[in-house]
Amino acid sequence: MRGICLLTGCLLTLALAAAAAAAATTGLTGDERAAPAAGGIRAGAAAPAVAAEAVAEPATGATTLTTGPAEPTYPYTGKIGADLVNIRSGPGLYYYPLTTLGKGDEVVVESERNGWLALRPPDSVFGLMRKSDLEIGPGGTSAVVTAPKARVYASSSTAKRQWCVASILEKGDRVAVLGPGEGDFLRVAPPKDVRTYIVDEYVTASAAGVEPAGGVTQAVDVEVGEPEVNPLIEAFNKADRDLKAEMRKEIGRRDFDTAAEAYQAILEKAEKDYIQKACKERLAFIEGLREHQNEYMRVESLGEELDERLADIKTRYAEKKARRDDEHEMGGADFVAQGMVRDLEILEGVDYPIKYKLVDQNNKPLVVLRSTQYDLGDYVGKVIGVRGTRKYLQDWRIYCVTVDDLEVVE
After folding, report:
1. What's the CA gap between 287 and 256, in Å, rounded?
2. How many CB atoms lie within 10 A of CB 142?
3. Which residues share a beta bridge with 204?
4. Predicted local confidence at residue 57, as pLDDT
């Protein structure tokens, strides 16, 4: 009897184990059921138990998967997805274009920041360095930096500007010389740290997943600062701001000297034609503003000057009128006149008490003479001085002196 009970217990245990194994495998797909367990263990009763433990307590260091796109691994090769795209000297529309690429052209993407991709420079891009910062080697194909710091300006054969500093080299660094540039500059191959920039939406990773030569490196969050700007450009922009500030002032109070001196200083230092041209245009514009302001001030002052002159004329006229009125009322005041006695031609042959006049050295009439005490005819042609009373003859428009006393001067 005891043997029968033991046998029954074993059979029951086996039945329960089989039922548990069937229940554990119910939620797996066909592929999962067919996959071998880790370490070569067959799919059986033990496998579900291990899986359950793994679900309950994930192993330390396990990675949680997300449904979003994976972060790209830099560098990678991408292709341009638009017909004509600008490749710029810096990560922003403020930076000037260096070249353009077309749809399907390949680029090597080094990093991304704020919607801009940093690229390895295309073949058409080169750097510009001052000859004075370099010692050119034999053959002229390479050079060594001799200055403590040497700037490399981003440029190309189509770039209209060249102020963006793409790299700064140290003394002793070597560069490959590509040929002469403008003025004191040489064309050099871009150093390894030089990057050009494009908006990220215009580049897609290559479908084949081709990676650039040199292996794959993990993306690093690199701080992309704005390249150094030409100080002459900054000075020019400041001068523009100063000029605009003066133009906002009331006309007549504008002082253009500060802005004009700034533009002149930039013009003397600038080596680029476009900077020189801009400064000359600003100086000519300022000269026009000065002439306009001076003309305005001249016209403005005419009113004040005319008012002053008119007031002076009125004052003198009032003074003369007052003297004339006094003389008419008083019958004349003591008067001394000196000149040569001449006949009054208009009264020759006429018996009229006024027959003589007193003229100056230019024969201009000064006064007419009459006298009951002197025979003035005896003094014709002589220079005399007379005293007496005078009266203004309105019809003749000249004073008449009644001679009370006279003296021969010459």
Report:
1. 9
2. 16
3. 79
4. 41
CATH class of the domain whose range is 71-120+195-227: mainly beta
CA distances (Å), origin 187, targets 124, 181, 346: 12, 5, 101
Dihedrals φ, ψ of 145, to 5°? -70, 125
Contact 358, 366 (CB under 8 A): yes
Do the two domains 71-120+195-227 and 331-408 of this chain adopt the same fold? no
Distance CA 118, CA 199 (A): 9
pLDDT given at position 181? 84
Tokens representing residue 166 in the block: 């793409």
Encoding tokens for residue 184? 């004191």
Helix (H, G, I), strand (E, B), or coil: what is residue 221?
coil
Residue 326 has pLDDT above 70, yes or no: no
Give the relative orientation of helices 231-247 and 257-269 as an angle to the nearest 10 degrees.
160
Say which DSSP state 94 is in: T
Long-range contacts of 262-266 (CB under 8 A, 24+ apart): 262/235, 262/238, 263/236, 263/239, 265/235, 266/232, 266/235, 266/236, 266/239
Q: pLDDT of 74-113, one tens digit each?
A: 899 999 998 899 999 999 888 999 999 999 999 999 999 8
Helix or strand run (H / E) with residue 246:
helix 231-247
Write the CATH number of the domain with boundaries 331-408. 2.40.50.140
pTM of the model: 0.40
Radius of gyration from C-alpha coordinates of the chain: 55
The string of pLDDT tens digits covering residues 137-175 is 888 899 999 999 999 999 998 988 888 999 999 999 999
Locate the domains of the chain by residue range: 71-120+195-227, 124-193, 230-329, 331-408
* Beta strands at 125-130 and 142-145: parallel, antiparallel or unpaired: unpaired
